[in-house]
Amino acid sequence: MIRRMTLLLLLLMTPGAQGVEIGPAKQADDPWAKYDVLTTSNAAKEDRFEKVVEKELGEYTPVFIGNSGLKHIWSVRHLTVEKQPRGAVVLQSGDTLVIDIDTPEDRRYLRHAIHHEFYHLIEFNLAGDFYFRDPKWMVMNPPDFKYGEGGRFDQDSATDPGNIVHPLAGFVDQYATSGLEEDKAEIFACLMVPEEAGEIEQWSRADRVLEAKVKYMRGFVEWWSKDTGPMRELFLAVVHDDEPAVEKLLAAEPALATREAWGGWKPMHWAAAHASAGALSALAKRVGANDVDDQGWTALHIAAVIGDETTCRQLLGLGANVGARDKSGKTAGDYAKLMHHDAIAALLLKY
Predict the structure, then answer these.
(1) Residue 347 and residue 312 in contact, taking contact as beta carbons nearer than 8 Å
(2) What is the pLDDT of residues 132-167, one digit of tens each?
(3) How far, in Å, CA of 64 to CA of 130, rounded?
């Protein structure tokens, strides 16, 4: 069995809660989730729950936990979202993970659920959106594949997260096909549960799509497990389109504008992915509109994959080269066609 830390290229640090508050919920309900606060009669089950959570949380470095934005893990009972029973969920504050102590501990479900929901929290805090449409992840899938309507519409037992069966190429379970955000969270969770990590490692040997997703997620964890310093500040400023903050950071350290993060991400590409118009303008002043990542993508490739016509037009105005080809020989227009963004493909043909 391949150990999860070997698979994720992490070093196991000081065990325990890593500075995160773990215990019963401190408030009743949330605009997003409904639940019951624990009573003293739940003490024994709460103690077992805390031990499981602390063990799972201890698999991350303190730096990773700090970068994630996680502050609290609360235990509750009768957890629901939109009247659907849930084992775990992230509160709208973005810093609190709530887990139902009645979540079954069999078939690895509780451990898997902790890591799955933790990834949603991470995505919200580092990408600014639970439903970030990651263009680098999107193109890993077969061209004609389409996700479902999201995890909240796919809650029956046959498609439960953690029901790892590798139903089709690139996916660890049926639930992962419900939405891009669920696909990423399932890969992340599987890598953190040793039994599942071994399974997807084996499947990846013959499944190139799954192999690419695992590699991308490993790089994500490895990068955010290090002290990223001002790069974290820059990425967050870009996400929130804080143009003055972007300019201030670049003035202090100009090299940040071309520095690569996980998956080859550069600030210019991150700005295009988030339609951050002010940040794009500030970065273009430093690096132009045609800086490339490790795949040879320009920011225009990113906007074309997502299908963001407004950002495409802004990049064209900043001097983006529509003829630029990535390492596979594709232009931004090629990706627009591939992703069925016909209006953008037509727009790029005019330049």
Answers:
(1) yes
(2) 999 999 999 988 899 998 765 455 544 556 688 999
(3) 18
Q: Which residue has 């000081």 as its token pair?
A: 14
Residue 22, helix vs strand vs coil: strand
pTM here is 0.90
Residue 163, SS3 per DSSP: coil
Mean pLDDT check: name the lowest of 35-39, 218-222, 290-294: 35-39
Contacts of 86 (CB under 8 A, 6+ apart): 33, 79, 80, 100
Residue with tokens 């906007």: 303
Sign of torsion over alpha carbons 5, 11, 17, 18? negative
CA 298 to chain centre: 21
For residues 216 and 188, the answer to whether their CB atoms sit within 8 Å is no
At 184-200, the pLDDT tens digits run 999 999 999 999 999 99
Q: Which of 198, 207, 206 is nearest to 170 (CA)?
A: 207
Asked if residues 210 and 197 have their Cβ atoms less than 8 Å apart, the reply is: no
Amino acid occupying residue 221? V
The whole-angstrom separation of Cα 27 and Cα 51 is 22
pLDDT at 105 over 70: no
Judge contact between 234 and 267, C-beta under 8 A: yes
Exposure string for 252-285, b = 16+ CB within 10 A, e = fewer: eeeebbeeebbbbbbbbbbbbbbebebbbbbbbe
| Residue 47 confidence (pLDDT) above 90 | no
- Per residue, the 3-state secondary structure of 107-162, as one string, reads HHHHHHHHHHHHHHHHHHHHHCCCCCCCHHHHCCCCCCCCCCCCHHHCCCHHHCCC
In 3D space, the residue among 327, 303, 331, 329 whose CA is nearest the CA of residue 315 turns out to be 303
First to last CA, the chain: 53
Query: Cβ of 10: how many Cβ atoms within 10 Å?
Result: 19
Instruction: Count CB atoms within 10 A of the CB of residue 291.
Output: 18
* Separation of alpha carbons 77 and 313, rounded Å: 49
* The two structure tokens encoding residue 31: 């605009």
Measured N-to-C along each axis, helices 299-306 and 309-317 cross at an angle, to the nearest 10 degrees, of 160
